[in-house]
């Protein structure tokens, strides 16, 4: 067995009180991303990625993970109360190298990108939320709850439901129209049953009994199931409000045959080649005025 020509950092168990956050660390994290990271740490544990420079005592990488572990363990950095231990990768860097690696280890320009076709196939066999993806990511990949359906099938031209679904927050209560046969509700189509099936994987009520065929179910459970369909329709309608900031109609997806084509496009217009999203107004300004204009 030949020795590895790439050296590896030593792993060591250290006390939290031995570790400092790098005061210059420029990385930030959104509340939503922090929630996802915390959930993953609590579910599968710390899987590495925490690098500690023993010369300075600073973290080189892993600030957000350690911050979350501090909160979970109720560690007080000022008093040292609730000190705890965990494994880190230990390096011995001078100040310049430490700062360079702090940036390098989080630099998207030196990280890989996804093969979208392989990613779509992989995501269909797992819980995408456990992989850090959200509904918007799935929509962009064509895998969202409604990715295979025309929004016009779900709403009328004015965005209203084809039936009176009653109070969506009160499943089981009588509604003005409870005769939800295929013909009365959606003409010759079975869209209502399709939408009911789709709510199983949505963020709405998962406690409903859906074991019976929708149109053969009891009246009370039909009402409850219909109200869940109405909830998800309302949510999608809200997302597609053209006047609402961040609505689903406020973006367009541009795809490329190869990652290199995407990188070339982003670089040509002065964007980060690894970015997933760009600001439309900024892009338009670049088209109209060139890179020198904001």
Element pattern in H and E: EHEEHEHHHHHHHHH
Largest sheet: 4 strands, mixed
- Residue stretches low in confidence (pLDDT < 50, at least 5 long) are 146-190
Please tally the β strands and state the result. 4
Helix content: 25-40%
Shape: extended
Reading side by side through the largest sheet, how are the strands ordered? Answer: 1-4-2-3
Overall radius of gyration: 26 Å
- Summed over residues and divided by their number, the pLDDT gives a mean of 76
Strand content: 5-15%
Which structural traits does this protein have?
294 residues; alpha+beta; 4-stranded mixed beta sheet; 4 strands
Strand-helix topology:
Layout (H helix, E strand, L loop, with lengths): L9 E6 L15 H14 L6 E3 L5 E3 L1 H11 L11 E7 L3 H10 L11 H8 L11 H6 L10 H4 L27 H5 L4 H8 L20 H21 L19 H10 L11 H10 L5
Parallel strand pairs: 2-4
Antiparallel strand pairs: 1-4, 2-3
Short description, anyone?
With about 290 residues, the protein is α+β, with helices and mostly antiparallel strands. The protein contains 11 helices and 4 strands; from the N terminus they run βαββαβααααααααα. The chain has a 4-stranded mixed β-sheet, with helices on one face.
Overview of this structure, please?
With 294 residues, the chain is of the alpha+beta class. The chain has eleven helices and four strands. A four-stranded mixed β-sheet has the order 1-4-2-3, covered by helices on one side. A hairpin with a 5-residue loop joins β2 and β3 (59-61). Residues 146-190 have low confidence and may be disordered.
């Amino acid at each position: 067995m030949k020795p590895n020509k790439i050296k590896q950092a030593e792993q060591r168990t250290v006390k939290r009180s031995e570790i400092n956050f790098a005061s210059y660390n420029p990385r930030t994290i959104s509340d939503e991303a922090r929630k996802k990271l915390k959930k993953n740490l609590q579910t599968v544990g710390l899987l590495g990625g925490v690098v500690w420079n023993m010369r300075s005592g600073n973290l080189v990488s892993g600030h957000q993970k350690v911050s979350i572990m501090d909160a979970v363990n109720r560690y007080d950095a000022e008093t040292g109360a609730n000190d705890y231990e965990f494994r880190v990768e230990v390096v011995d860097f001078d100040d310049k190298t430490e700062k360079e690696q702090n940036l390098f280890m989080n630099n998207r320009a030196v990280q890989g990108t996804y093969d979208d076709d392989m990613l779509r196939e992989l995501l269909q066999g797992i819980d995408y939320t456990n992989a850090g993806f959200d509904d918007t990511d799935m929509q962009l990949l064509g895998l969202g709850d409604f990715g295979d359906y025309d929004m016009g099938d779900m709403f009328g031209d004015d965005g209203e439901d084809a039936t009176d679904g009653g109070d969506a927050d009160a499943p089981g209560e009588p509604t003005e129209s409870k005769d939800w046969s295929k013909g009365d509700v959606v003409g010759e189509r079975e869209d209502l049953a399709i939408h009911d099936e789709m709510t199983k994987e949505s963020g709405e009520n998962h406690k409903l009994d859906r074991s019976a065929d929708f149109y053969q179910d009891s009246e009370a459970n039909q009402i409850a199931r219909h109200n869940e369909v109405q909830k998800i329709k309302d949510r999608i309608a809200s997302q597609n409000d053209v006047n609402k900031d961040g609505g689903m109609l406020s973006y367009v997806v541009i795809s490329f045959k190869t990652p290199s084509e995407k990188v070339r496009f982003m670089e040509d217009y002065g964007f980060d080649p690894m970015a997933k999203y760009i600001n439309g107004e900024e892009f338009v300004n670049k088209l109209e005025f060139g890179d020198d204009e904001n």
